Structures are given as C-alpha cells and as structure tokens.
Amino acid sequence: MATIRKKGREGKEFKFKEHPTRFIGLRFAYLGWNYNGLNVQALPTPLPTVEGLILKALVTCKLIESETDLEACQFSRCGRTDKGVSALAQVISLRVRSRLTPEEQKDEVNDERELSYITMVNNLLPLDIRIYQVCLHPPDNFDARFSCVARHYKYFFVSRNRSLDVDSMRTAAKMMLGAQDFRNFCKIDGSKQITNFNRYILHADITRVNHQFRVDGDDEVYVFDLKGTAFLWHQVRCIMGVLLLVGQGLEKPDIVEKLLDVKQYPCKPIYDMASDTPLVLYNCEFGDDVKWKGLSDFKSSAAGTAISSSRGVAYALWYDGLIKNELQFAMRNVIESAAEESHYDPNVSRTKVHTGDGMGRWLSEYVPFQKRPVMDSFEVLNERWLQRKTRAVEASSNGGGTDAEEEVRIAAEQA
C-alpha cells in the first residue's frame, strides 16, 4: 500500500530560541498512589513520577526545550511528595514559551491572547494529574520553593469501632507547635547533609471528617491537620506514626515532648512511619502578590470548553472512587460474613499496631520507645554518605567493575 505523506509542518524543525519566553507559576493537583512521587528521577523508577509526566507534556507542547535540563527553564518545585502521597495545591515555577513579546507580557490586558498553558498541558496528562491555575505575573524573584510561606498537610485515618483515643492524639499533636527540633520525626537523607532539624509548626490539630463514603456505624474518619513553614523528609508520616501509637494507648501523649528533647533522645528510636496513601499536601501558601488565574478567569470560547472538560474529569474521578468504595464495602461484607469470629482468637496474645493503611502490623510484644534500639546520629549518617560518594567517584574514575557501578548507583539514588 502506498504511503501518503501529509502536507504541513510536521517535519519542520521547531526553533525554540526564535520564540519569546516568560516566567510563570503552575498550580496543580494529583492523586499519588499511581506514581513514584513528585520529583523526576535521574534513574528509572518502577512507576512514573508526576514531574516526569508534566515535563514530558511541556516538551511535547514545545513549551520547554528539555525535560532533563531543568536549570535552562529555571525550574523550581514547592513541596516534595514521596511515592503514594497526593497533593491538591502543588506548585512549580519555570520559564516557558510565550505567544507575546516581553512588552506585551507586562500588560494583563493581553493575558487573553497568551497560550492556554492549563489546557495545553492537561490534554497530555493522565486524568489524575490536573493543572488548574496559572500565575502569569509572578513577583520579582518568585520561586515556587523559596517564596512559599507555609505548607499545609492533611493525613486521613479511621478510628475503627472508635478504638483510638483521639483526644490524647490531639494533645500530643499540639506539643509540636512552634520551633522544635524534629530529628526524631524524620528520615535523614545523607545526600542533603542536613545539620539543622529545627522546623516551625504553625498549626496542629485533629478533627472529625463528615465523610461521604460508606463506613461502619462505629467507625469514625478523622484528619490530622499540620501546617508549617517547611518540613523534613517523611516528617509528617513519622509524626503520624507516633500519634497512632498514642491513640492506641501504646505510648502516652508526652512521648512527643520527650522525642522533641534531643538531650533525652539524641538519636531517633527505630519505629514505623505511617502509610503513604492517606497523606496529602493540601495547600502551599504564598503572599498576596502572587495572583492565580483559573480557566474561569479567561473569557475565550476555548476556555469555556476547557472548563466543561475539567469539571467532567473531576466528577469522573470522584465517581470512580464512589463506585469502587461501594464494591469494596460489599466485598468486605461477603468476606467477613464467611469468616465470622469464633470464641478462639489466635491473635489474642499479640498487639496490632495501627499504621494508617487499614492492615496494621501484628507484634508478639510491643516495645516502648524508651526500650527500643536507636539509629545512628545524623553526624554518623552524613559522614557515611560522604564516604560512600567518595568511593563511588573514585571507583568510577578508575574504571572499576560491578562493585564500582553499584556504588555509583547507590550514590545517585540518594542524591
């Protein structure tokens, strides 16, 4: 069969430097359980990253030149989220191609003539990643990371049969307010060489959620609200892991106060952090001089069509969750009715620790924090990483074999 070559500009090289650019901010939401975290990674990951998909879409739209050279487009992200964690108001800032000249960009009247960044990128993204606002006129020196004044996280959890002492959890949470050393409430990343673990917490509270989905009559859904100026790696999940132990009565509320005292606990006791899925970066707050525009702020007919599509996507995601919740509830009833509890409970001599994932973890005996082994100090962990990096660099430069390649891989993963 003869191949028909379409006429047009398909084979024409796009000369990016011939087009004007502008610096913007993008605000977006994503459901994190299908992704390997926010940050794009240098090495392949089991699941795609949110940033990786957004950058790929930006390149496809010819809005940026490269998805790997982030310095070229002055790229910055507000709040890192790890695998499984969601966000409702994540922000990135970067320089992108523009339809307007630098002079035209200064006048907000011309915003209607600008490229429809929201629609262009959304058309190339999965439905569970949605850009919904753009800042076309950020203030001077705006940076998605360093211009953020507060980050607000929410962690949802269930008190099954009202088994958690939520009042004690709330009391413990409020001990974190103000400036505190959170070295015992985070995972230390040697590649960052962090020596200052002081972070300022603006708000910490636990409230009941008026849920829409099906739960048992005695089950209650709660949310832990935590707002601060900045956070350490896995800080929220570590905090939640401790709060759940308090809620179960396995630790007293003052364990938080004790862990914040680095004289009493100079090194972090070994414990499990809470599950990733219930955590969401709820909001990233900026000053009043950062003005955001959504699709409804644009008057073109194309914007109207995009609004309808955007609302449809949001409804479809909610509808999908609702239907799945109904089916999961039915499946739970079927399984539980076929496996009714007998008078003999093989787990009676064991302790089930609430980890936020619904499954929990069974322990033959719970070990209080004061009796647990502790991790190495951050000084030791930082030095160990530096030594590993040095070995990796030396082995690579000397043309080492498999061991050298492994050292390089480990160092790269932690960088």
TrEMBL record:
Transmembrane annotation, as ranges: none
> Which NCBIfam families does the entry link to?
hisT_truA
Give the species.
Lipomyces starkeyi NRRL Y-11557
The family this protein is said to belong to: Belongs to the tRNA pseudouridine synthase TruA family.
**Stored SUPFAM superfamilies:** Pseudouridine synthase
Q: Name one GO molecular function term.
A: pseudouridine synthase activity
For the biological process aspect of GO, one term held by this record is: mRNA pseudouridine synthesis
Which named protein is this?
A: Pseudouridine synthase I TruA alpha/beta domain-containing protein
An example GO CC term for this entry is: nucleus
Location of the Pseudouridine synthase I TruA alpha/beta domain: 172-286
Record keywords: Isomerase, tRNA processing
Q: Where is this region: Disordered?
A: 392-415
Which domain of life does the UniProt lineage start with? Eukaryota
